[in-house]
Task: inverse folding
């Protein structure tokens, strides 16, 4: 199949919808929407999230050395999209979005009660990448809604129902059907 | 809903399946499977990918200052899973997986002809995170199969059919239905 060259485009598939929650230097809870992040290392277990220096969240993370990563369910798509379009500098986004902030018991940041999965992170390192600062946070705890867990504390992706962000078309999608078991389906290619 | 504390777990949803392709110091094309990566900054436009120092790909990226990020389609799930389970040190994974390496015209790395989306990246920075090195690469070009493009050069996520990796259950999923338009559905919450 012939490929077309599109120039520099951020075409990673799938991209997540991450709600990053912080306390600012006045102690006000705030939240932003980030698609640009993921797991960065297994030990220490870290996430990385790109945050523009102009964002209110940027200085909040640095002043508190902490943030939470909250995974919204697809039923929260309106609220998740909303918090990505306004600044928390002059607005209480938790109130406007109808989110309930719960103060983390392990880091100096709030998490969003309504999100089925939350990761509580201590800031480990920042990497200056000009337009964005990469915030690298160590995951100290993951909390998951009890009704989203299968046997053995394994989260059920269809009950969590996370959003997929498609940055190419600027649309949100849901998770589809199971395709295969990982670390398993490829075994048949072993000679 | 009551949350259960699961300790430090890499519960980002969704996670991608990224095939990282390189030339090693002998010029041999190699590929690994990485779920831990994403976009890191918009300017310079960068990706970050966590790679263990023990991986053959690790030194290949550093010796060539380049790598490609290839998005496999779900029809390639067996091959994508396979290249995540074996090392390219003593095996030609391109041959074993049936992948065709195409030498990039912009960076010193191959890409996978069969993957519908490829990002050609120049290594910009490395960040030591102990178990993994975060490889930060500037995206110099994105190439997409012509039959996966909609009008106006926008890639069609359902034609690309990327895999979703669920690290909690160790399963691959497909992309589901459209949920909403981004930067739009949240507007109704504006007062």
Result:
């Amino acid at each position: 199949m012939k490929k077309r060259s599109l120039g520099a485009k951020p075409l990673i598939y799938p991209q997540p919808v991450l709600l990053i929650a912080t306390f600012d230097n006045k102690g006000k809870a705030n939240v932003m929407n980030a698609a640009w992040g993921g797991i960065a290392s297994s030990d220490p277990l870290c996430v990385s999230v790109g945050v523009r220096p102009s964002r209110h969240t940027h200085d909040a993370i640095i002043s508190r050395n902490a943030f939470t990563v909250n995974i919204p369910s697809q039923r929260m798509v309106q609220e998740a999209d909303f918090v990505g379009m306004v600044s928390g500098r002059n607005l209480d986004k938790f109130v406007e979005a109808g989110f309930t902030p719960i103060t983390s018991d392990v880091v100096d940041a709030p998490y969003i009660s309504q999100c089925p999965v939350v990761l509580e992170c201590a800031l480990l390192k920042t990497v200056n990448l000009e337009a964005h600062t990469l915030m690298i946070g160590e995951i100290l705890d993951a909390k998951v809604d009890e009704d989203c867990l299968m046997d053995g504390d394994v989260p059920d992706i269809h009950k969590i129902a996370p959003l997929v962000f498609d940055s190419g078309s600027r649309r949100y999608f849901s998770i589809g059907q199971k395709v295969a078991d990982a670390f398993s389906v490829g075994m048949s290619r072993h000679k």
